[in-house]
């Protein structure tokens, strides 16, 4: 006969990811100008910003850029004077584009590979939110073949197919102590694919350009990801191994409108407005292949709201060889009060950017960019974990790109 | 060469960005109208850091007073907080329970730790009985928690001879002590105190099923508590008092239930309709009338009840099965029956009214553990992604004895004290991260 109650551990690995995770690092020229580009025709990055503009590109080109991202976040628990910082880890969003079409032809073909969403955060295993999240490495790599057609000298259209490979690697402490007092550990690791499309239209007039583009939602499902649980031996049966999980991340659709004006032939001014349909992100569900009374499937509300961002930028060509760029913007958060989580502690944010482009030779350009992003300090109590405190985040993003054009 | 330079710049860039950390300006810790320069802790086993049925070094090191004292440092508290710790070589102190695994039913299996103890012997005290003594502690003391002590004992001169945990703090030989607890704690000046005495005045009665101990008289409790607080505050010290938890909020009484026992019996013999307990016939505390009756959900069975007794033939009652007939009920000492529960609740309520009234009269902060632990029992507690509750072992708060707390439980309690202090004295002692302390350790 049973002396005492069965062990019923209410340990729900309610793990969350995919937050205000939009990276926006589409191309070095555009970063320098405050992420504007929907209403401009600059280079192959139009594949990302507005596929409708690709046919207006004067040359064929191939380019690649990288933007090492230093995400620096701090957390102060409510009622405490302790401040935790995330570890120094560098994410590497990249972009690569190729554009080809017949000389003076009415169409161009493009191929883009870029990382529109992602996050790399490592809070370590001794901070107060360790049972919510220790570290997360989330990547989404989009591959986008694109065709663009110039309908007339003043208007072109384009569209592409998007293939996404997403991956997640997440760790979190489990609140069960071993004989040495150490926590258990959960690691969820896997990859999956998703599909979508994008389209855009671009208008060109004297001294004025404009564009509208749309990137569809890409629902990426991670199926059969590995779920590793390191727990004391006496509890191992509660966390069956090996185990797998299934989860879906809806990467949201984005609608962009952009304008370019050209006061002189050396000066370009640009304005973009983005509207990201984050409201598709209602819930984060994890479905484990093997469940126990301890390890249940989880269903965490996210209830994101749509969010807009406003961007301005300018470029000044000091000489034929050197262009200088500045820009900035303000982005509204998609995360409602009570839903802020440590993966990417989101809040309204502003940013400033600067950049320079230099023609190394007739065919070869180098572009550098720098961005400082300030996520506004936000005091929150998460409704699901009760993790309560103030997050303060700033992001530093240098970047460089090389372009060969002919 | 050129590449080398590039790498150098990249490294430099990495270093620069790594150094730029976002700042959060936290409110400065401060003592407000209190003075934490010498904080002393007054109390019983909970204050001493007792856990898993014993007092041992690791429990002492995670006592709630030691946690509070550490948090007080930035708010003007002393750098050191002296506790009567057991030495490393005698780290297991009195011995304690350890979880060794789970049986085939999923029930926990525990074993006693019997090595590296601090026990020095057993002395027979005339007219009292045997007292286990421990290696003496001779250093400074700020944590005066003595396991087992009642408020009732604080003015008893001979008490040092009756409680080995108090005896080890006193100079002189066992059997010769004459210092009262109250004199002992107030001998040296202090500026701030915490006081969580009074639990054992009710708990002793409750954990013995109302059979092995008596409740401290309400008027006596009131008089002693008033004198205690008068003594503690007479030199102007401020402090915090804690109320006594509802004894029915602890897993010691909520883990082995009549329904669980009955279900186990019915697995073997489906015809059994009830288990029987020897229950008090009324709520008169002086009455000794007990009678057997079927157990209900209002009767609380102690965690220490050996369920293997159920169904065993009782020789003195014609070999009838234990616990299953009115002639062979579960004995009184294993059952806090419904009437006894009412009595204990009534006394605890009276004690707590005394604590709150006396504290208020001296403008002393009150950490209302009664309300807090009842709330935890009813709703659980969600902290930093950890779901805590009052369940045995899995709840994370209570240690293996079902009465005392885990380090995590003591950290939660420390935060309750800190909040009460901060509110009363307009202080700002930073709270502690509950996740930094462990719950029950699993093998």
Quick tags:
heterodimer; A: 406 residues; mainly beta; Porin; 2 helices; elongated; B: 443 residues; 2 domains; four-stranded parallel beta sheet; two-stranded antiparallel sheet; Outer membrane protein transport protein (chain A)
Give your account of this protein's structure.
The complex is a heterodimer of chains A (406) and B (443). By secondary structure, chain A is mainly beta. Chain A has a single domain, classed as Outer membrane protein transport protein (OMPP1/FadL/TodX) (Porin). Chain A starts with 27 loop residues before the first helix and ends with a strand. Chain A has a 14-stranded antiparallel barrel with strand order 1-5-6-7-8-9-10-13-14-17-18-19-20-21. Chain A is built from two helices and 21 strands. Helices cover 32% and strands 15% of the residues of chain B. Chain B is built from 14 helices and 16 strands. Chain B has helices at residues 2-19, 45-48, 57-61, 64-72, 159-162, 164-167, 181-185, 199-207, 218-233, 251-254, 258-268, 338-361, 369-379, 407-425; strands at residues 39-43, 97-102, 108-112, 119-125, 129-134, 192-196, 238-242, 276-280, 290-294, 300-301, 313-314, 320-321, 335-336, 365-367, 381-383, 386-388. In chain B, the strands form seven sheets. A four-stranded parallel beta sheet of chain B has the order 1-6-7-14, sandwiched between helices. A two-stranded antiparallel ribbon of chain B has the order 2-3. Chain B: Residues 1-21 form the signal peptide.
Question: Concise description?
Answer:
By secondary structure, chain A is mostly beta strands.
How many helix segments of chain A? 2
CATH-derived topology of chain A = Porin
Any guess at the CATH architecture of chain A?
A: Beta Barrel
Radius of gyration of chain B: 25 Å
State the strand order across the main sheet of chain A. 1-5-6-7-8-9-10-13-14-17-18-19-20-21
Largest sheet of chain B: 4 strands, parallel
What would the CATH topology of the largest domain in chain B be?
Rossmann fold
Elements of chain B, N to C (H/E): HEHHHEEEEHHHEHHEHHEEEEEEHEHEEH
The greatest interface here is: A-B, 59 and 61 residues
The top level CATH class name of chain A? Mainly Beta
Please give the oligomerization state of what you see: heterodimer
Average predicted local confidence, pLDDT of chain B: 93
CATH class of the largest domain in chain B: Alpha Beta
Query: What percentage of the residues of chain A does DSSP assign to strands (E)?
Result: over 45%
User: In percent terms, what proportion of residues of chain B is strand?
Assistant: 5-15%
Uncertain runs of chain A are 1-20
């Amino acid at each position: 006969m049973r002396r005492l109650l069965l062990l019923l551990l209410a340990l729900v690995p309610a793990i969350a990811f995919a937050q205000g995770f939009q990276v926006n690092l589409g191309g070095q020229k555009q970063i320098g100008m405050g992420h504007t580009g929907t209403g401009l025709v600059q280079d192959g990055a139009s594949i990302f910003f507005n596929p409708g503009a690709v046919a207006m590109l004067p040359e064929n080109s191939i380019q690649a850029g990288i933007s090492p991202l230093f995400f620096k976040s701090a957390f102060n628990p409510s009622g405490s004077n302790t401040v935790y910082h995330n570890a120094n880890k560098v994410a590497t969003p990249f972009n690569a584009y190729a554009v080809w079409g017949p000389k003076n032809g009415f169409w161009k073909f493009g191929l883009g590979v870029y990382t529109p969403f992602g996050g790399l955060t490592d809070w370590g295993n001794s901070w107060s939110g360790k049972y919510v999240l220790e570290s997360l490495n989330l990547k989404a790599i989009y591959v986008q073949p694109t065709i663009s057609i110039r309908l007339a000298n003043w208007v072109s259209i384009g569209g592409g197919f998007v293939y996404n490979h997403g991956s997640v690697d997440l760790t979190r402490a489990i609140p069960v102590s071993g004989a040495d007092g150490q926590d258990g550990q959960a690691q969820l690791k896997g990859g999956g694919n998703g599909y979508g499309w994008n389209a855009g239209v671009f208008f060109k007039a004297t001294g004025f350009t404009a564009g509208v583009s749309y990137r569809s939602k890409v629902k990426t499902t991670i199926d059969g990801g590995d779920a590793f649980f390191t727990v004391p031996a006496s509890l191992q049966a509660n966390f069956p191994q090996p185990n797998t999980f299934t989860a879906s991340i809806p990467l949201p659709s984005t609608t962009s409108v952009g304008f370019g004006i050209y006061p002189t032939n050396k000066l370009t001014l640009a304005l973009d407005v983005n509207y990201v349909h984050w409201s598709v992100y209602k819930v984060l569900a994890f479905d484990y292949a093997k469940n126990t009374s301890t390890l249940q499937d989880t269903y965490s509300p996210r209830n994101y709201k749509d969010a807009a961002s406003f961007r301005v930028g300018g470029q000044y060509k000091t000489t034929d060889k050197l262009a200088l760029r500045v820009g900035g913007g303000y982005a509204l958060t998609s995360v409602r009060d009570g839903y802020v989580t440590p993966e990417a502690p989101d809040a309204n944010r502003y940013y400033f950017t600067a950049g320079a482009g230099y023609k190394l030779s007739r065919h070869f350009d180098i572009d550098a960019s720098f961005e400082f992003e300030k996520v506004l300090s936000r005091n929150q109590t998460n409704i699901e974990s009760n993790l309560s405190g103030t997050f303060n985040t700033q992001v530093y993003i240098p970047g460089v790109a090389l372009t060969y054009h002919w | 060469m050129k590449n080398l330079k590039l790498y150098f710049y990249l490294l430099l860039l990495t270093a620069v960005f790594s150094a730029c950390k976002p700042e959060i300006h936290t409110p400065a810790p401060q003592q407000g109208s209190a003075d934490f320069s010498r904080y002393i802790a007054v109390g019983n086993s909970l204050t001493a850091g007792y856990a898993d049925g014993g007092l041992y070094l690791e429990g002492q090191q995670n006592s709630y007073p030691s946690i509070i004292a550490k948090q007080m440092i930035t708010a003007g508290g002393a750098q050191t907080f002296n506790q009567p710790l057991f030495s490393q070589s005698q780290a297991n102190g009195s011995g304690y329970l350890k979880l060794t695994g789970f049986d085939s039913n999923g029930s926990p299996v525990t074993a006693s730790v019997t090595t590296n103890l601090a026990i020095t012997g057993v002395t027979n005290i005339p007219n009292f009985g045997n007292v286990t003594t421990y290696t003496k502690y001779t250093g400074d003391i700020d944590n005066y928690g003595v396991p087992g002590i009642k408020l009732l004992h604080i003015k008893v001169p001979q008490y040092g001879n009756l409680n080995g945990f108090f005896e080890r703090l006193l100079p002189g030989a066992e059997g010769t002590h004459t210092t009262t607890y109250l004199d002992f704690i107030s001998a040296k000046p202090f500026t701030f105190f915490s006081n969580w005495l009074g639990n054992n005045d009710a708990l002793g009665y409750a954990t013995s099923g109302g059979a092995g101990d008596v409740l401290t008289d309400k008027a006596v409790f009131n008089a002693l508590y008033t004198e205690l607080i008068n003594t503690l505050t007479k030199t102007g010290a401020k402090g915090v008092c804690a109320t006594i938890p509802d004894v029915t909020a602890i897993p010691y009484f909520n883990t082995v239930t009549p329904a669980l026992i009955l279900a186990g019996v019915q697995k073997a013999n489906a015809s059994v309709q009830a288990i029987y307990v020897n229950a008090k016939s009324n709520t008169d505390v002086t009455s000794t009338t007990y009678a057997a009756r079927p157990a209900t959900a209002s009767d609380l069975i102690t965690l220490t009840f050996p369920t293997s007794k159920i169904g065993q033939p009782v020789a003195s009652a014609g070999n009838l099965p234990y616990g299953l007939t009115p002639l062979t009920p579960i004995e009184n000492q294993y059952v806090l029956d419904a009437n006894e529960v009412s009595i204990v609740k009534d006394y605890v309520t009276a004690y707590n009214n005394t604590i709150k009234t006396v504290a208020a009269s001296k403008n002393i902060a009150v950490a209302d553990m009664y309300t807090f632990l009842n709330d935890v029992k009813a709703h659980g507690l969600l902290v930093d992604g950890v779901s805590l509750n009052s369940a045995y072992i899995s709840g994370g708060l209570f240690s293996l004895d079902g009465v005392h707390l885990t380090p995590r439980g003591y950290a939660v309690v420390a935060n309750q004290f800190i909040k009460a202090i901060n509110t009363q004295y307009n202080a700002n002692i930073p709270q502690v991260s509950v996740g930094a302390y462990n719950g029950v350790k699993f093998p």
